[in-house]
Design goal:
single chain, mainly alpha, Growth Hormone, Chain: A, 3 domains
Length: 538
């Protein structure tokens, strides 16, 4: 009895609001470093003296680490509690990011990136579960808004920030930014998440096993690496690709067999065998695929066709954060009043409309020509992602998982895996599709440019005349004219391929609308929940 006041005083020192800020910052840091590695890979190649093949593994190794720890975070969170996991991983992540620029060998750099991914990968799945269990239900909609803004906006500022870093500071700050902010995350976690006792298995209950999680995590990481490197390795023609796919598939099967033979008390697969989570997983995959229109396709066009640098691409994407935030607030407002499926459908409809608007582009388009379509896309992204997160939270609340920690961790781990895997499947398919369509259009255009034809000769003659003043001889001028003509063909072929990508994304949005229409209405909407809470307060 004398220790009770001391325990209560000890509990009062922890403020969940600090913990929420800490896990949100962690999710942003994990996403931000991945985006910086992607947009800054050309600068990292030059600074670290990497060839093309070596540089391609920089982002892959980091994301494979995140993929590995996605399923494993369920085991870690259930066994050790979020406080221990987040503090240890945030501290390690900060150290890894701090020393990465000093890696003297490629193997050391890749090892540090894998370790960085392993530690950062715990931030995302543990963040949403902690927010849901610690924020009062009357503030749930605001938590959804902040969480969605935290993830979506982070992906759009990477180009501007990386361009500013190279101009004002150094490429090393691609890593040091997270190294500097991770201790701040640790402070918030330390102040906001109370320690929890280590769980003890009940009599007769099987002990938690790490082996099944290890098999699943390693298998998922290998499959992720195969998808990420597939286009460069030429898919099944590469022994490395085949080895990754076969080994990864074998480990995933081993994990499934072990789970059914010896069920693990830290995971509850039957909880996921419901219609709503399965359909929401497909919606998340579609969202990650459609997000490529803003973060991959548009930047690829601007850099390849218009010759933009990251500093020039940044302003085309950076201003989208404002309409995304406003659209997110609108979505949160509507979540408390109408069916979440309507919000999802409206958001994905806007994203599809933005992609179809971009399908009218020509090789003369610059960054300003994308403003109208990017505005529509930004509004759609803000509404769709807030609606998606709101639908996920609504399913958790309706299923009663809030009172069952294992179900909540299973749900978070599953959707972390879907987020990474679904995004990589979309990115791998888009990269293959873009290259294939570019080759097709280049071949079609090349058929109309035959050596010796009248139109070709007239075009080369005109270009040669323009090059005469800068060339020493007529032969040099003609050679430059032929090169310029080939570049023009490539430019037009790539533009047509990008147009096909936007048309594909528009079709994907229609498919997603069909999935949304197949979802069942939630038994209890936010409107009823807010009314019940209001009635309780009065």
């Amino acid at each position: 009895m004398p220790e009770a006041p001391q325990e209560n005083a000890h509990k009062r020192t922890y403020h969940p609001a600090f913990g929420i800020v800490g896990v949100l910052l962690g999710a942003a840091l994990a996403t931000f470093l991945g985006r910086l590695l992607s947009v800054g890979i050309a600068d990292l190649r030059g600074a670290l003296h990497l060839d093309f093949d070596e540089a391609s593994w920089v982002g892959t190794s980091y994301n494979m680490g995140m993929m590995f720890v996605g399923p494993f975070s369920v085991y870690l969170g259930g066994l050790l509690g979020p406080r221990r996991v987040l503090l240890a991983c945030a501290g390690s992540f900060s150290i890894f990011c701090l020393v990465m620029p000093f890696a003297t060998h490629f193997s050391i750099l890749i090892s540090l990136l894998v370790l960085g991914g392993l530690t950062a990968g715990t931030f995302y799945p543990l963040s949403l579960s902690f927010i849901l269990r610690n924020i009062p239900q009357r503030y749930a909609l605001y938590g959804i808004s902040v969480y969605a803004v935290d993830i979506v906006v982070t992906t759009h500022v990477a180009h501007s920030y990386e361009g500013w870093l190279l101009h004002a500071l150094s490429w090393r700050w691609i890593f040091w930014t997270d190294a500097l902010l991770a201790p701040l995350m640790m402070l918030f976690v330390y102040l906001g998440i109370p320690p929890q006792p280590l769980p003890q298995p009940k009599p007769g209950q099987p002990r938690p096993s790490w082996r099944g999680f290890l098999y699943a995590s390693a298998g998922a990481a290998m499959l992720y690496g195969a998808l990420d490197q597939g286009q460069r390795l030429d898919w099944w023609r590469s022994g490395t690709f085949v080895a990754l796919v076969v080994s990864g598939s074998f480990l995933v099967i081993c994990s499934a067999v072990r789970h059914f033979a010896q069920p693990n008390p830290l995971i509850n697969f039957p909880f996921l065998r419901r219609r709503t989570p399965i359909l929401l997983a497909f919606v998340l995959i579609f969202f990650r695929f459609l997000l490529l229109s803003a973060v991959v396709v548009v930047p690829s066009y601007l850099t390849s066709v218009q010759g933009y640098s990251n500093a020039e691409v940044g302003p085309v994407l950076l201003w989208l954060a404002i309409p995304q935030i406003l659209a997110g607030l609108l979505a949160v407002y509507l979540l408390g009043r109408i069916d979440s499926r309507i919000i999802l459908g409206f958001g994905f409809g806007l994203m599809g409309l933005g992609c179809l608007m971009n399908a009218n582009l020509s090789s003369d388009w610059s960054g300003t020509n994308f403003m109208a379509s990017q505005l529509v896309l930004a509004l759609g992204e803000g509404i769709a992602f807030n609606g998606l997160v709101g639908s996920l939270v609504l399913d958790i609340l309706n299923s009663g998982a809030m009172s069952r920690g294992i179900d909540l961790l299973t749900f978070s781990g599953f959707f972390q895996t879907i987020r990474l895997f679904g995004g990589e499947i979309g990115a791998a398919f888009m990269g293959h599709f873009l290259q294939t369509r570019e080759a097709y259009h280049s071949n079609v255009l090349g058929l109309n440019i035959q050596s010796g034809s009248l139109a070709t000769n007239e075009r080369i003659a005109a270009l040669t005349a323009g090059m005469q003043a800068q060339a020493a001889t007529s032969d040099v001028a003609m050679g430059r004219a032929s090169t310029l003509l080939a570049l023009t063909v490539r430019k037009q072929a790539f533009t047509l391929a990008v147009t096909d990508c936007f048309l594909l994304l528009g079709c994907a949005s229609i498919a997603c609308l069909i999935v949304i229409a197949s979802m069942e209405p939630a038994k209890t909407q936010y409107k009823q929940m807010m009314a019940a809470l209001k009635a309780q307060r009065t």
